[in-house]
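Researcher: Batch entry, complex prediction.
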Amino acid sequence: MTVLFRDIAELHTFDGFAKKDGRKVSEADFGTLKNAALIVEDGRIQWCGPDRKIPPSLVKPVRQPARQPGRLPARQPVRQPVREISLDRALVMPSFVECHTHLVYAGDRSQEFELRNQGVSYKEIAARGGGILSTMRATRQASAGKLLERAQFALDRFVEQGVTVVEVKSGYALDEAGELKMLQVANKLRRARIVTTFLGAHALPPEFGSTSAYLDFLVGRLLPKVRRRKLSSRVDIFLEKGFFERPESESYLLAARDLGFQITLHADQLSLSGGTDLGVELGALSVDHVLQIKEEQVRKLARSSTTAVLLPLADLYLSCPYPRARLMIDEGVRVALATDFNPGSSPCQDLQLVGLLARLEMKMSLAEVLCAYTFGAAAALGLQSEQASLQVGKRADFITLNCGLNELFYSPGRPCVRSVYRDGALQ
Ligand code: NIG
Ligand code: FE
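Model: Structure tokens for the complex:
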């Protein structure tokens, strides 16, 4: 099926972000075309350019089949039906990629939020059996149906904001049945492309006496099952003092890599614990949080293909400093932004607020934020050759806007996205 999208006042292809591999980008990389059109075939971009230059050849001529035996077949080429859609003079840009969420969970932690505001720290709450373990208890008890209903509700909130790819982690059951249940639920979500990540190594569950015994169980039993059942091809770990420390994390991630998993880490969030160094050494797709890192880690990241995923909502909720985005970007690190949506450190799904914090608190330019939430985030998931810029051959995942690009990440609460297309289909 060929679809011709017309009446596009401005088409921001973001091809410059792709050409620069998401590093040191600027407004000159928006790749803007005025009065443009877009041709999509079978969900992929076949052509984009000025409306007046739509190539007639792309509206493919096909021959009519012979009508009756004995009669000459019609030899005249006829035009294949092309569906034409007017985008009503809209502004068009690639859809957003949300590359770090803990979307599947049960229960809520609003009481803990109040405790934290009264001065009890995230780590103290965790040590008292709250935090991740409190969500673990609720998630273990919840049925798959209930989890799916809640997660789909939350996923729809992302789609409304112009997101077509969502990463979803396990890590709130911390036992075999529950972790598999979480991944199965994530894989059933509709209306966006889902990338699942196995985060069994999120916290130590009460059934195990030591983190090393628990990680042995994950390697020996759960990881092979996750792989065999094709529930996820990515492994994450919360590498942090008091959770999983560097040496055991390294053996765990090496074992995961040997089993064919791609690697990502919750790295250097609460303290400089070695997660970024290890991630770069192991060729991780991303290191996430990274607010405690120093110049040395920034330079290592800049020379690597690992993406730094910045999660400023978690920093806001935990009253932490924000990551040094300016230093990272100026040194040539590819950065991504995400909500980290979860019931503890970031009970918020607002992409506009993420970008606003990046602009206000991390001094990122608008172009840097736009790149971090499209190309950078796709790179964090290894999907940058598939999407996040509107170039021939890539997926036709794009959004139309009610406002100019300059009004994005500026006024949270004001809906800016008019419509969302995934693989060229309206969501
Ligand atoms: O990304 N840091 C570890 N994991 C989550 C928080 C999980 C939770 O508090 O439930 C995070 O911040
Ligand atoms: Fe997280």
